[in-house]
Amino acid sequence: MNYQAPAQHLKDRVILITGAGQGIGATAAKAFAAQGATVILLGRKQSKLEEVYDEIEAAGHPQPAIFPVDLAKANQAEFTALAEAIYAQLGRLDGILHNAARFDNLSPLEIQNAEQFNGMLRVNLIAPFLLTKACFPLLKRSPDASVVFTSTTAAHHPAAFWGAHAISKSAAETMAKIWSEEIGLLPNLRMNTVIPGAIQTPQRKKSHPGELAENRPEIDAIMPLYLYLMGQDSAGVNGEIFEALKP
Ligand SMILES: NC(=O)c1ccc[n+]([C@@H]2O[C@H](COP(=O)([O-])OP(=O)(O)OC[C@H]3O[C@@H](n4cnc5c(N)ncnc54)[C@H](OP(=O)(O)O)[C@@H]3O)[C@@H](O)[C@H]2O)c1
Questions:
Q1: Check: CATH 1.10.418.60 for 14-243?
Q2: Nearest residue (CA) to ligand 1, atom 38
Q3: Cβ(107) – ligand 1 distance below 6 Å
Q4: 198: Cβ below 6 Å to ligand 1?
């Protein structure tokens, strides 16, 4: 997307990013912070989140918050406690980027085991549901809130070996569509889905080991779309699916 965010266009917003320790999530957290947002870095590994935190602080952007959470294990009560902690510490929530995902490898369903199947559904589908639900009261109170889900082309074109990853992403897209229909009458809240495309990240190396890294776009190439969706220029855009690498 060819979008130029106005300077500081996320100023005073509080935005939660899942999977913020590396890849697209880490880059988005830094991009949101550079635009004035207070970012909440959620991920499994504290040390990775601290690296992102340190970079944001060193750049002089608003002080972030860190919440180490394993999305495969957290239950509704824990997500509710997280939302309460956000309210107690930061007083508001204006956006969620559901970016974390579990992808193990390409393998036939015949050999994907119950732990893998269940784990991918938990991280890629059930956690975004429970987290959105827990944060819903805060989002409804925001003057302009945006929730972004992350999908993949494998959800649209189910192909052999993509197994529970594609299944969970496809179901998450359906969930995003249902949420967006249900909030259709709320003028201050929107929910959309992003398909990042073939982007140079650790997960991409795993899913497409044969691709040449130099042929993949860098993560920065898709940040204009993420900035657009998190800011007020996308107010009223609801229930859409965006392919980040399409012009
Ligand atoms: N890169 C692409 O080409 C591409 C294409 C299509 C879709 N996507 C989607 O874009 C999103 C970001 O992908 P990426 O390429 O940046 O992947 P990535 O580098 O592998 O990052 C995934 C993030 O998810 C986190 N995560 C995984 N399991 C978790 C759990 N149980 N609890 C909390 N966090 C967990 C990881 O945290 P840890 O570091 O702790 O493991 C990591 O920070 C994903 O939803 C992916 O499906 C990417």
A1: no
A2: 44
A3: no
A4: yes
Distance between Cα 101 and ligand 1 center (Å): 4
Nearest to 99 by CA among 24, 46, 162, 152: 24
Angstrom distance (rounded) from CA 161 to CA 54: 38
pTM for the whole thing? 0.97
What is the C-alpha to C-alpha distance for residues 179 and 238, in angstroms, rounded to an integer?
10
Q: What is the pLDDT of residues 79-119, one digit of tens each?
A: 999 999 999 999 999 999 999 999 999 999 999 999 999 99
The finding on whether 122 has its CB within 6 A of some atom of ligand 1 is no
Question: pLDDT (tens digit, 9 = 90+) per residue, 19-61?
Answer: 999 999 999 999 999 999 999 999 999 999 999 999 999 999 9
Domain ranges for the chain, please list them.
Answer: 14-243
How many degrees, rounded to 5, is the angle at CA 37 between CA 76 and CA 67?
35
Say yes or no: CB of residue 128 within 6 Å of ligand 1.
no
